[in-house]
Design goal:
The complex is a heterotrimer. Chain A is mainly α. Chain A has 16 helices and no strands. Chain A has one domain: ABC transporter involved in vitamin B12 uptake, BtuC (Orthogonal Bundle). In chain A, helix 8 runs antiparallel to helix 14. By secondary structure, chain B is an alpha/beta fold. Chain B contains 17 helices and 22 strands. In chain B, the strands form five sheets. Chain B has a six-stranded mixed sheet, with helices on both faces. In chain B, strands 16-19-20-13-21-22 form a six-stranded mixed sheet, with helices on both faces. A four-stranded antiparallel sheet of chain B has the order 2-1-4-5, covered by helices on one side. The longest helix of chain B is centred in the first third of the chain and has 19 residues. Chain C is built from 13 helices and four strands. The chains are: A mainly alpha, B alpha/beta, C mainly alpha. Chains in contact: A-B, A-C, B-C. At the B-C interface, helix 2, helix 3 and helix 4 of B face helix 8 and helix 9 of C.
Chain lengths: 364, 516, 321
C-alpha cells in the first residue's frame, strides 16, 4: 500500500523541503550579519510590490518555465538533462539568426519563426547526447555537461568571429530590427485598460510559456507518446517488452526537452535584450533543474515553482541593490532547494512516512 | 553479548537455536514468532513456498536484517547478531541465492575480501592461496584461484561462495535455494560436498522449495508457511505428500483437471532459431519446435539454458536468426517489425517470466497496465488523445472476469499481491483472444489459490483451440499442464516427451544434457 | 617555436595540470567506491575561497590549506549524507553542491572582505611559493637537460609535487592494500562487501572523505599557489575537466596522470596563443578551450575502447528483500 496519501506526496513533501531550504537561507543571511525578516520584506516589496517588480518576476518566471519543463519531460523518461543551459544558448543563436537575417513583416510571424529556429537549435544540441546515450551507451549526464561547455565555446566563437558588427568590441550581435520587437505586458494589457509598468521586460513569451505548460501536460498525461515516455521512464525493461523503442523515446524526449530549453531564447534574447550577448542565459538552464524537482516534474508544479524562482530572482536583485547581500544568495537558495527536494528527498520523506504509518495504525 | 546458558541445555547444545523470531517489513509480517533448533553435524532443511519467509529468517541469522523480536543461541550461548561481521565471528557462513561476488575480481580476491590479514594485500593473498589448497583437498573443492569470477560458470561461482565461508572458519553453513541455477548433476555434486561437510562436523541449513532435495539429503526439516513455522519433523519420518500439505495448508492438486488435447493446425513453427546475446554468446543454437492449435507445449530446463531467450525472441525483444512462422507466415526476427507491437498485431500474446520488471509498470495504475502494450489500440483513442475513460471501463470488466482483488482500477500495480498482479497480466493478454500465448513462469511467487485459477485459465484457452508455449522451471507445473514437453539444455532442445509417458528422472537427465 | 618557449609551455602545462590531477584523483576514489561525484567543481571552489580567506586572515598559507580541506570535507559530508545515508540521487546532489559552493563563496567573501566577492591579494607566507629542487641553480647551465630541470621540474609549489606523488600513492592504496581491495569491491558489488561483514557505508564515507581532502588541496592550490587570492568562479570548469579526465583515464591513476597532463597542455597552449595556424587552417582559441570536452564526448561514444565505469556506480546501496 502507498504509505502516504497523495496530497502529502504532492504538497506536503515539497512544502517541507522548501521550508527547510528557507530556514537554512535565513540562517545564511543571519550569518553574514543581515536581518532575514527585513530581507524577505525587501524581496516581497521589490518583486511583488509594483507592476515593475511583477514584470521582472514574470520575465524570469518565463525563462524558468521553459527550462523547468525541459528538465521535467526528460525526467519523465528517466533522463537527466543537465544541458538546458547549452541548449538555451544555442536557442539564442537560433533566435539571433532568425531575427537578423530574415526580414519579418510583423512581430507575430517573427515570433513563430524564431520559436521554430530556437527550438530546432536547442533540439539538435540535445539530440546528439540523446543519440549517443541510446546508441553508444554514453552517460547522458556527462555528455550534456560537456555540451554546455562546448556550446559556450561555440557561441563565443560565433559572436566574436562571425556575428559581431564591424567596429564593435563587444562580443554580441547587432540590435534586432524594430519589426521583431515583441510586445511587453504593458503593450498587451494597455488595450484592456490595465496599466502595467513600461520598463519591465515581461512580454508575450509568458503566454507562450504558459501555453507550453498546458500542452506538455496534455502530452505527458493524455497522449500515447506521453504514456510511452512515462512507461519507459518507470521501467525500460517493461518498455522493451511492450515494444516501446528505447531509441525512439530517448530521442523524442530529449528533442522536446532541448526544444523547450532552446525556446527560452524568445524571452531573454528576443523579448528582453533584443540582441544576442555572450552570457544571455544567466544560468536559467540550471535553475530549470531546481524548478523541475520542486514542481515534481508536473507542468502545474513547474508553473508554480517557476513563479517562485522568478520572485526569488527579482527579489534577490533588489536585495543586491539596497543591501550588501550579493545576488549569489539566490544561487545558495537554489542549491538548497535542489538539495532538499532532489537529493535529500528521503530525509524529508522517511519521517513523514513513519508519521503516516503511526497515524494509520491508530485508525485501524 | 551475554553468556546465558540455555535453560534446557541437553548434553550437547544445538548448534543453532532461534526463539520467537518476528520480523515485519512495513505492513508485511515476514516472520511470525519462529522457533527452531538445529543439532550440530546435521543437515536441516527449511522448506516453504516462495514468499513464505525462509530467506528473511536466514538473513536475520546472518545479520542482514535485524529481527523485531526474538533471540538467537549459537551452541547454547545467547548471541546478538547485529551485522554480518557478528555472524561471521559466530561461525556462520551463508551462500545466497544470488551470489555476492565481485565479477571482475579473481577467485582469491573474492575469498579474502573482508577477511584479509593486515593491511597489505600481498600477504593476505599469499596466505589465502595456501589455505585454499588445504581446503580443496579436505573437501574436494578444486578451483583455479586466479580465474576471474566473470569467466567461470555458476557451479564454480557457488563453490567460491562455499570456500568463502569455509575460509572464514564457518561451522554453520546456510545455503539459500542452492540448486536453482544448477543442472541435476551439478546439484548432485553439491550434495556430495554437503555430505562431506556434515561428516566433518559442520552444521548445514538448506533452504529450498524442492521436496526432492529435502527428502534426499536432510536429517530434519522445518516447514514454513506465510511467515510461520508450521512444523519441524525428522525427514525419515515424513513423506513428500505430507510435506507438501504442510507447505500449502491443504491437500494440493498437483494434477490439473484437463481433457486430452485435440491438436489442430500448426500455429507456431520454429526452424533453426538462433539468438546471440549482447556479449556475443550464442544462447539459442538452432531451435526447432512446433506448437499446434489447441495444445500446450511445455519447455522444461534449468534456468539459464535459453528458455528466457526463446520467449524474448518470440515476444519481440531479442533479435534472432532462422525462420519462425505464425499461422504459416514468417515473422520478422530483426529490424523495425520485430518488436512487441508487431508481435501483438500477429496474434501473439505474451505473459513474460518476470511480471514486475517486464509485464507491468509497477508505478502505473491497474487501468494503465491493462492497456500496456495495447495502448495503441484504436478503441483506447479519441483523436490525438488517449481515451482514459474507455480504458478504465475495460479494466473494470477484465478485473471482474479474472477476479482481481481488490477490484480497484486506480490502484498502482505494486500494491497488488503477486497473484493478483499476474491476473492483471493474464487478463490483458488472454482477453485479446490471441492465436498463440507465450507464458513464462506463470505461477512464480503466486499464492496457492491463484495458482489453480491461473492453470484453469491456461487450460481453458487451450480448449478454445489456441496454441500455448509454456516455460517454467517448476517441473511439476510443466508435467501437470503440458500436452507435450520439450527439454532445453545449453540452447538446444534435447528432446520431446509425452508427459504421461515420462517421469522426473528422465526429464532431469535431459535437463542435464544427457541423451536418454 | 624555440626550445625555451617549449619549456615555458610545458612548465605552464604542469602548473595547470596540477589542480586537474588532484581533482581527478579525488573523483577516482569516490567513483571507484560507487559514488558518482559531479560536485568536484564545487568542492574545489569552496576550498579555494576558504583557503584564500584563512591565509589572508592568519597570514599562514598552511592554515589556509587546512581551511580549504575542511571546507571541501564539509561539502563531501553533505554529498555523503544525501547519497549514502539517505540514498538520494548522487547526480542531483552533485549539482546542488556546485551551486551551493558558487553562492556561498561569494556571499562569505563579500561579507568578510567587502571587496566584491574576492579575497585580498595574498603575499609572502600567505601564499605557496615556488620550491627549488636541489642543484637547480648549478645544473641550469647544462644544455637541454639544465633548463628542463631547473625550469620544468624544479621551482614549483610544494602542492605540485604533492599532486604528482599522489599518483603512485593512489595506485598503491587501490591495488596493494586491504582498503583498496574493499574500496574497489564496494564500487563493483556492495552486496559482496556487506555480506563479507564490512560496512558499505563506512567504506563509502571513507572514499568521499579522501575525495574531499584531494579536492581541498586542489582548491587551495588554485587560490594560494597558481593565483594569489580567490575570485568568483575561479575554478572555471576545472572540476568538470577533471571529471572528463577521469572518464578518459578509465578510472585508473596512471592514466589519470597522462590525461591531466594532456589537458593541462591544451590549456597552456590556449592560454599562450590566441589562434593556432596549421598551414591553411586556423584553429580558433575557442576550439582549444572546448577540446577536452569534445574529447570526452568522443571517448564516451566508444571510439577507442569503451569506458566502463564501476558497476555499482551511481546506485545507492539498498539491501535486497
Amino acid at each position: 500500500m502507498d504509505v502516504m496519501p497523495k496530497w502529502a506526496e504532492v504538497v506536503l513533501v515539497p512544502l517541507i523541503s522548501l521550508l527547510l531550504a528557507a530556514i537554512l537561507s535565513a540562517l545564511v543571511i543571519l550569518a553574514i550579519g543581515e536581518d532575514p525578516v527585513a530581507a524577505v520584506k525587501l524581496m516581497v516589496d521589490g518583486a511583488l510590490g509594483s507592476t515593475y517588480g511583477w514584470g521582472y518576476t514574470l520575465y524570469y518566471a518565463t525563462n524558468f518555465m521553459f527550462t523547468g519543463l525541459a528538465v521535467s519531460i526528460a525526467f519523465h523518461a528517466r533522463l537527466f538533462n543537465i544541458g538546458g543551459e547549452g541548449q538555451a544558448m544555442l536557442g539564442g543563436l537560433g533566435v539571433a539568426l532568425a531575427c537578423l537575417y530574415i526580414p519579418w513583416p510583423h512581430w507575430s510571424l517573427a515570433l513563430l519563426g524564431a520559436m521554430v529556429l530556437a527550438g530546432a537549435f536547442g533540439a539538435i544540441w540535445a539530440a546528439i547526447p540523446a543519440y549517443l546515450q541510446a546508441k553508444r551507451g554514453s552517460h547522458i549526464v556527462i555528455t550534456t555537461i560537456m555540451f554546455n561547455f562546448i556550446a559556450a565555446a561555440l557561441l563565443n566563437y560565433v559572436l566574436v568571429n562571425l556575428l559581431r558588427p564591424k567596429g564593435s568590441m563587444d562580443p554580441a550581435t547587432a540590435r534586432f530590427p524594430e519589426a521583431v520587437n515583441l510586445p511587453t505586458l504593458h503593450d498587451i494589457l494597455a488595450p484592456i485598460g490595465i496599466s502595467f509598468s513600461k520598463a519591465a521586460p515581461a512580454n508575450v513569451s509568458l503566454i507562450v510559456a504558459v501555453l507550453a505548460c498546458f500542452l506538455l501536460w496534455v502530452l505527458i498525461w493524455r497522449t500515447q507518446l506521453g504514456y510511452e515516455i512515462r512507461a519507459y521512464g518507470h521501467s525500460d525493461s517493461a518498455a522493451k517488452y511492450a515494444g516501446i523503442s528505447p531509441l525512439k523515446i530517448t530521442m523524442i524526449a530529449m528533442i522536446i526537452s532541448g526544444g523547450l530549453a532552446g525556446m527560452m531564447a524568445i524571452n531573454n534574447v528576443m523579448g528582453e535584450a533584443e540582441r544576442l550577448v555572450l552570457n544571455s542565459t544567466e544560468g536559467a538552464g540550471f535553475i530549470g533543474i531546481a524548478v523541475a524537482l520542486m514542481g515534481r516534474s508536473h507542468p502545474l508544479g513547474v508553473f508554480i515553482a517557476a513563479i517562485l524562482f522568478g520572485f526569488l530572482y527579482q527579489g534577490g536583485a533588489e536585495l543586491a541593490l539596497w543591501t550588501t547581500i550579493p545576488r549569489e544568495l539566490i544561487v545558495v537558495i537554489q542549491a538548497l532547494v535542489i538539495l532538499f527536494t532532489g537529493a535529500l528527498d528521503n530525509m524529508v520523506r522517511m519521517p513523514l512516512e513513519r508519521l503516516f504509518i503511526a497515524l494509520n495504525g491508530k485508525k485501524a | 553479548m551475554t553468556l546465558t546458558p540455555s535453560a534446557h541445555a541437553p548434553e550437547t547444545a544445538p548448534a543453532i537455536e532461534l526463539k520467537g523470531i518476528s520480523k515485519a517489513f512495513g505492513p508485511v509480517q515476514a516472520n511470525k514468532d519462529i522457533s527452531i533448533s538445529v543439532m550440530p553435524g546435521t543437515i536441516h532443511g527449511i522448506i516453504g513456498e516462495n514468499g513464505a519467509g525462509k530467506s528473511t529468517l536466514m538473513s536475520i541469522l546472518y545479520g542482514f536484517y535485524k529481527a523485531d523480536k526474538g533471540e538467537i543461541f549459537i551452541s547454547g550461548t545467547k548471541t546478538e547478531i547485529p551485522d554480518s561481521q557478528a555472524a561471521i565471528s559466530a561461525g556462520i557462513g551463508m551462500v545466497f541465492q544470488h551470489f555476492k561476488l565481485v565479477e571482475n575480481f579473481s577467485v582469491l580476491e573474492n575469498i579474502i575480501l573482508g577477511a584479509e590479514d593486515g593491511w597489505s594485500l600481498s600477504t593476505s593473498l599469499r596466505k589465502a592461496r595456501k589455505s585454499l589448497v588445504d581446503l580443496a583437498q579436505e573437501y574436494e573443492l578444486n578451483i583455479d584461484p586466479d580465474a576471474l569470477i566473470e569467466d567461470i560458470g555458476v557451479g564454480m561461482q557457488q563453490r567460491v561462495e562455499i570456500l568463502k565461508a569455509l575460509y572464514r572458519q564457518a561451522d554453520i553453513l546456510i545455503l539459500d535455494e542452492p540448486t536453482g541455477v544448477l543442472t541435476p548433476p551439478e546439484a548432485d555434486q553439491l550434495f556430495r560436498i554437503l555430505g562431506r561437510l556434515r561428516e566433518e562436523g559442520k552444521t548445514i541449513i538448506l533452504i529450498t522449495h524442492k521436496l526432492r532435495e529435502i527428502m534426499d539429503i536432510t536429517d530434519t526439516v522445518s516447514v514454513m508457511r506465510r511467515g510461520e513455522m508450521t512444523a519441524t519433523v525428522k525427514t525419515a519420518e515424513t513423506s513428500p505428500e505430507h510435506l507438501a500439505e504442510l507447505m500449502v495448508g491443504r491437500k494440493v492438486l498437483l494434477r490439473v483437471d484437463k481433457d486430452i488435447a485435440a491438436p489442430g493446425e500448426i500455429v507456431l513453427d520454429i526452424k533453426n532459431l538462433r539468438v546471440v546475446d549482447d556479449q556475443g554468446v550464442e544462447r539459442l543454437k538452432g531451435i526447432n519446435l512446433q506448437v499446434r492449435a489447441g495444445e500446450i507445449v511445455g519447455i522444461a530446463g534449468v534456468a539459464g539454458n535459453g528458455q528466457s531467450e526463446l520467449l524474448e525472441v518470440l515476444g519481440g525483444y531479442a533479435d534472432g536468426s532462422g525462420t519462425v512462422s505464425v499461422n504459416g507466415d514468417p515473422i520478422d526476427l530483426t529490424g523495425k517489425y520485430s518488436d512487441g507491437k508487431s508481435r501483438r498485431k500477429r496474434g501473439i500474446a505474451h505473459v513474460p517470466e518476470d511480471r514486475q520488471r517486464e509485464g507491468l509498470i509497477m508505478e502505473y495504475a491497474a487501468w494503465e497496465n491493462i492497456a500496456f502494450g495495447y495502448h495503441d489500440d484504436p478503441t483506447y483513442q479519441t483523436g490525438f488523445l488517449m481515451n482514459n475513460a474507455a480504458i478504465r471501463k475495460d479494466t473494470v470488466d477484465k478485473m471482474a472476469r479474472f477476479d482481481v482483488r481488490p477490484p480497484d482500477p486506480k490502484l498502482a500495480a505494486k500494491n497488488f499481491s503477486g497473484g493478483n498482479q499476474q491476473k492483471v497480466v493474464l487478463a490483458r493478454e488472454i482477453e485479446r483472444n490471441p492465436d498463440l500465448l507465450l507464458i513464462g513462469q506463470p505461477t512464480r511467487g503466486v499464492d496457492i489459490g491463484a495458482i489453480e485459477f491461473i492453470h484453469q485459465q491456461v487450460v481453458a484457452l487451450r480448449d478454445q483451440g489456441k496454441a500455448i508455449l509454456l516455460v517454467s522451471v517448476e517441473l511439476e507445473e510443466i508435467l501437470a499442464l503440458s500436452d507435450r514437453v520439450a527439454v532445453m539444455f545449453d540452447g538446444h532442445i534435447m528432446g520431446e516427451r509425452n508427459p504421461t509417458e515420462t517421469n522426473e528422472k528422465e526429464l532431469g537427465l535431459l535437463m542435464a544434457g544427457v541423451e536418454t | 617555436m624555440d626550445f625555451l618557449t617549449l619549456i615555458q609551455i610545458l612548465d605552464s602545462s604542469v602548473r595547470l595540470a596540477t589542480p586537474l590531477l588532484l581533482a581527478c584523483l579525488a573523483g577516482l576514489f569516490s567513483e571507484r567506491a560507487g559514488i558518482f561525484d559531479i560536485g568536484l567543481e564545487g568542492k574545489m571552489l569552496a576550498a579555494a575561497m576558504f583557503s584564500a580567506a584563512a591565509a589572508a586572515i592568519t597570514g599562514s598559507v598552511w592554515l589556509g590549506l587546512l581551511a580549504g580541506i575542511a571546507a571541501s570535507l564539509v561539502l563531501s559530508g553533505i554529498h555523503g549524507l544525501a547519497s549514502i545515508t539517505f540514498r538520494g540521487n548522487q547526480l542531483i546532489s552533485g549539482v546542488a553542491i556546485n551551486f551551493l559552493a558558487a553562492g556561498i563563496t561569494v556571499l562569505v567573501a563579500q561579507s568578510w572582505f567587502k571587496q566584491g566577492g574576492r579575497t585580498p591579494q595574498l603575499q609572502g607566507d600567505a601564499r605557496f611559493e615556488g620550491y627549488d629542487l636541489p642543484f637547480a641553480e648549478s645544473l641550469g647551465s647544462i644544455p637541454v637537460f639544465g633548463p628542463a630541470y631547473s625550469e620544468l621540474v624544479s621551482g614549483h609549489s610544494i602542492l605540485v609535487y604533492v599532486a604528482f606523488l599522489a599518483v603512485p600513492a593512489s595506485w598503491f592504496v587501490l591495488y596493494r592494500t586491504r582498503f583498496g581491495l574493499r574500496l574497489r569491491a564496494v564500487g563493483e558489488n556492495p552486496a559482496a562487501v556487506d555480506t563479507a561483514g564490512v560496512s558499505v557505508v563506512g567504506l563509502r564515507y571513507a572514499a568521499i572523505a579522501i575525495c574531499g581532502v584531494l579536492c581541498g588541496i586542489a582548491g587551495a592550490y588554485l587560490a594560494t599557489a597558481l593565483q594569489a587570492g580567490f575570485v568568483k568562479d575561479m575554478t572555471a570548469g576545472r572540476g568538470f575537466i577533471a571529471l572528463a579526465a577521469l572518464i578518459f583515464a578509465k578510472w585508473r591513476p596512471w592514466s589519470a596522470l597522462w590525461t591531466c597532463l594532456l589537458f593541462g597542455f591544451l590549456q597552456a597552449v590556449a592560454l599562450r596563443y590566441q589562434n593556432i595556424d596549421i598551414g591553411p587552417i586556423t584553429l580558433p582559441v575557442q576550439l582549444m578551450d572546448a577540446l577536452p570536452y569534445i574529447l570526452v564526448v568522443v571517448i564516451l561514444a566508444g571510439v577507442g575502447g569503451k569506458a566502463i565505469p564501476p558497476r555499482a556506480g551511481g546506485e545507492p546501496y539498498v539491501k535486497e528483500r
